Amino acid sequence: MLIWGAFIGLIIVFLALDLGxxxxxxxxxxxxxxxxxxxxxxxxxxxxxxVIYWLFSSGLIDNPTGLTPNNAVLKYITGxxxxxxxxxxxxxxxxxxxxxxxxxxxxxxxVLFWGILGAIFxxxxxxxxxxxxxxxxxxxxxxFGVFLLFTAFKMLKSDDKGxxxxxxxxxxxxKKVYPITSVIKGHDFFIKRMGVNAATPLxxxxxxxxxxxxxxxxxxxxxxxxxxADPFIVFSSNILAILGLRSMYFLISRMLExxxxxxxxxxxxxxxxxxxxxxxxxxxxxxxxxxxxxSVALAGGVLASLLIPEKEAA
Length: 314
Description:
The protein contains twelve helices and two strands; from the N terminus they run ααααααββαααααα.
């Protein structure tokens, strides 16, 4: 429990420095700044693999799945890349939500910051539940595998351009529960209008992003559980990827049209981990194979988006 407490404490320090020091004053996040922060978060996450190696070699942490230090590091990096790649799809949806509710770029970082806090809490619950389910019931891994294959198929056939947050079930229910105003006053989530407290578009966007992230977690957490059932590796790789989501959003949200093939990469990744879950008791796939498939799928989607002319793609 000491290691878990230290890790959670480290995350709290990161978040406190982020909002209280580096982003104390609201400002528009430029591409250069977003690129620097993305590099910092990726470096922190990859450097944490050294901590994983130390923890599993020293025996300071419970090792319920009997992992060797080298294997633990490979599983951590693979899990991190899975979550990072699936987060790209989340970026597309966040961009649509901000655009729909006309959230000024000046306040978008603050909305995403509070969204991260909720994401950490809900994902921690889902990870605990998912690990417990797989540990207690062997058949649960097959259920997750089928679900991931279904998700991959649905992603292949879906068209996200039709998504409109203002017509979503979440928005309609929120309007019934609490008064909503279209007025934005600074970075406030609530303001008083004609003597009535009302939620601003910032709060509405926050709620929809939060609940949307839970839906994305239904894909990403089973995907990581296909790599390992070790709770600390699943939690740390997931959370460190989520911490870098904000800077990644500001880095690539302005280039969404250029990454038109990235969805195919995500389909390949989800299909691969789904099949790995279904055959986990029959075929043993080395961790370097999983890492290679995920890396090649991501690189292939990015390169195809950059190299294939848009007219030819159409």
